[in-house]
Structures are given as C-alpha cells and as structure tokens.
Amino acid sequence: MSQAATLVLRRPDDFHVHLRQDADLGAYAREASRVFARVLVMPNLVPPILEAADVAKYRSGILEAAPGMEPLMAFKLLPRHTPAQLAALKAAGAIAGKVYPEGVTTNSEDGITDLRQIWPLMPALEELGLVVCCHGEKPGVFSLDREERFLDEFAETAQRFPGVRLVLEHVSTAAAVSRVRALGSNVAATITLHHLEITLDDVIGGNLKPHLFCKPIAKRPSDRDALREAAFSGDPKFFFGSDSAPHHKGKKECAAGCAGVYSMPVALEGLVDVFDRAGHLDRLDAFCSEFGAGFYGLPRNHGTVTLRREPWTVPDIVDGVVPYRALEQMPWRVATLDHSANPVNVA
Ligand code: NCD
Ligand code: ZN
C-alpha cells in the first residue's frame, strides 16, 4: 500500500456505462463526467439505440448534459441489421455494436439466442472497423453457468473472424479470463469495479443485498481472484468498464428487482482503493486509460485527475439511486480535474 498523500492519473476511460434516458440522463451523464474523459455508452434503452438517427440524437443529449466528456457510442446489434445500416451507424459516430443474448439482462428481450446469428454481418463489421461488444451469457442456462456456457460460441466467432475486434463485457469468471487470454489479439475483456471486489456471498450469503445484484452475477472467490489477477497483471487484453447501471431505489428494493450496480459515484475512487490495497497502483493508469484506448484504436486522453488520501463517506443515495459502497468510507477523494494538463510522469 502506498503512503503518498496524492495521486495523479491520466483522465480515464470507462468502456461500459449505462447513462439511461429522458429525465434520468442528465444527472447520470454529469456524474460520469466528474472524472471520466470518455465513456462507451450502452444502447439498452427503451426503445433501443438501433439506427444512425438514434445514435446522433443520444450523443447530442449526452453532450448537452455533460459537455466536458466525450460519449463513445454503441448501438444494439441485431441479426436484422443490414450492411448499409451498419455503415450509417458508423457514419453517425458509433464505434461498437453491442450484442445482448435474449433475456439475460435489462431490456434484452429482443436479443439473440446464439452469437452465430450475427456471423452474416461480420464481413461488414470488419470492413467498417466496428467493435462487437458481447454480453457474454447464454440464455436458458442455470444462472451461475451462463457465462461459461457462452465461451465456446464466443471463441469460435473470434477465431473464425480474426479481423473483427470482440470484447467480452464485464467478465465474471476465471474461465472467461483464461479463454480471453488464450484467444488472439482481436479479443479483449472489460472488468468492473464491483466484480473485482464482491462474490455471490456478498449478494446472498447473508441478508439479501439488492444493490449488489447485477448481471452477470458475482461468483466464487476463485473467480474474483482471477479477475483481480487479470486487472493487476498489465495484460492489455483487460481494461476498465464499470458497467455502472443505475436503477431507482424502488426498482431495486421490491419483489422483482432490476439487475445493475450503480458504481459511478465511486468508480475511480474505488479502483484506486482496490489497486492501492493490492500494492498495484502502478498498474492502474494502464488499466483505466491506456489498454482500452489501445484496443479501440483511440488516442490517449489529455488531462489529469488528482486524488488525495482523505477519507469521505459515500452518500446513501445519489440522484434517487443507492450507489455502490453506500455509507462506506472511501480512503481516496477526487481533488481536482485538469482538462489540459499533459499527463507525463503520472503514477
Ligand atoms: C445492466 C442494466 O441495468 O442496464 N444491468 C446489469 O446488471 N449489468 C445491463 C447489463 O450490462 O447487463
Ligand atoms: Zn452493462
């Protein structure tokens, strides 16, 4: 654990966030812009982000709410998309298509049942340089086995189309980590803050903790340890995607609670804490501001964020949502954001 009182990081990226829509969008976008220079925005709205016009409209709504942050746009990729629609999506600013297997998470009822259903679109996706982001869970399988059972079709897809970049989102198992490692350089994975910390026992091992319920569900200690090892390892295939997924308090504390952890209010502070306690602060910049940008072919961000070792207590509610680590003490606080600083010699 480092004893330094301040820490200067390059302004980071978050390659998987949910900013929602309508009256909720402004607050969630501003919360993300508190520290992140760029966020890859997930398209599972109602109705979903499917076409070029949806991308353009959603992007301008986010920019209006949070002008200091660059939204990176994703659309929901469906087998019925045509190459012409994909080209228009790309022209409207999309950098990725997100694949949702049917019914495995929030607003995925229109999802696919097998990744092979998008194979006919792979040549167009390759030509356009669009990244395919996969929610990696197999529909209809026992919930703890869904991710592992998705891996074969994911690997087959990655090997058959080496010119298409694929991201396995929010990995939650040791099996997924080792499969991503074994596949080619067209494959990467995002890891969330909460999957680096919690296991299924934190969700259901004592009293039920609905605010830790998310998809994919947190798993065994050995899975969490594999995720930590991957995040700390300096392997560029693994980078940060918070999967910050706000649902109003009443939608979580009820008889059929929504899946999603709202980690954005503590995202960077939490990562600093996890990496610091593990003695790997020197690996954090790469995990949250270099590897993702490298995989997506984006330049590194300008600007820095400075954190101070100064305890603070996470609020019990933020914009109507119970945040991750609510009421817990965080050892690091974000002190300043400098949009123009040249991040040389960052930690
Ligand atoms: C996300 C949401 O609420 O949109 N929920 C979640 O549990 N992670 C969707 C997702 O990324 O699976
Ligand atoms: Zn998500």
Describe this structure in words.
The chain is an alpha/beta fold. It has one domain: Metal-dependent hydrolases (TIM Barrel, Alpha-Beta Barrel), CATH 3.20.20.140. The protein is built from eleven helices and eleven strands. The chain has helices at 22-33, 52-65, 83-91, 122-128, 146-160, 174-182, 200-205, 221-232, 249-252, 267-277, 284-296, and strands spanning 6-10, 13-17, 38-41, 70-76, 94-99, 131-134, 166-168, 187-191, 238-240, 304-313, 329-338. It is globular, with a radius of gyration of 19 Å. Zinc ion binds at residues 16, 18, 42, 243, 245.
Name the descriptors:
single chain, 347 residues, alpha/beta, TIM Barrel, 8-stranded parallel β-sheet, 11 helices, globular, binds N-carbamoyl-L-aspartate, binds zinc ion
What is the total domain count? 1
Tally of individual helices: 11
Classified in CATH, the superfamily is: Metal-dependent hydrolases
Mean pLDDT over the full residue set: 97
Classified by CATH, the class is Alpha Beta
Biggest sheet statistics: 8 strands, parallel
Structural class assignment: alpha/beta
Indicate the CATH topology.
Answer: TIM Barrel
Strand line-up of the largest beta sheet: 2-3-4-5-6-7-8-9
- Could you say what the CATH architecture is? Alpha-Beta Barrel
Helix content: 25-40%
What is the general shape? globular
* Poorly predicted sequence stretches spanning 5 or more consecutive residues: none
- Could you give the distance between the termini? 14 Å
